[in-house]
Amino acid sequence: EFDNPDGLLVPGQYVRVLFSSAKPDMQPAVPQVAVQRDRNGAFVFILDAENRVEKREIRTGKTAGEHFIVQSGLDREDTVIVRGLQKVRPGMPVKVENKHGKDR
């Protein structure tokens, strides 16, 4: 959306718009079901190097389909827990499965 104070553009009119290419801002996205909230804000559970649960506070932005764009709090290498959230607690060890249900 943009201002049209002089009324140069009218409904139904066709225009040609040129955009300069910009480098995309790559940000992580997580399924909305993985994001929880408490009095401190949004958080997700991730796995540390020893496959133990860690609570990570995040700042979410816009949605993209069924995902939240994460503005801060996650690194590219982080593994976010998306299933079994009602059973996990910070510090507990977990067995990792890939999306096809097989161990990795």
Short description:
The protein has 104 residues and is mostly beta strands.
Topology:
Elements: E1 29-31, E2 36-38, E3 41-47, E4 53-57, E5 59-64, E6 67-72, E7 79-80
Antiparallel strand pairs: 1-6, 2-3, 3-4, 3-7, 5-6
Task: Write a concise keyword list for the protein shown above.
104 residues, mainly beta, four-stranded antiparallel sheet, 0% helix, elongated
Strand content: 25-35%
Number-wise, the strands total 7
Overall spatial form: elongated
Count of DSSP helices?
0
The major β-sheet equals: 4 strands, antiparallel
Alpha-carbon distance between the two ends: 47 Å
Description:
- The chain is mostly beta strands.
- The protein has strands spanning 29-31, 36-38, 41-47, 53-57, 59-64, 67-72, 79-80.
- The chain has no helices and seven strands.
- The strands form two sheets. Strands 2, 3, 4 and 7 form a four-stranded antiparallel sheet that branches. A three-stranded antiparallel sheet has the order 1-6-5, with no helix packed on it.
- A hairpin with a 2-residue loop joins strand 5 (59-64) and strand 6.
- The radius of gyration is 20 Å and the shape is elongated.
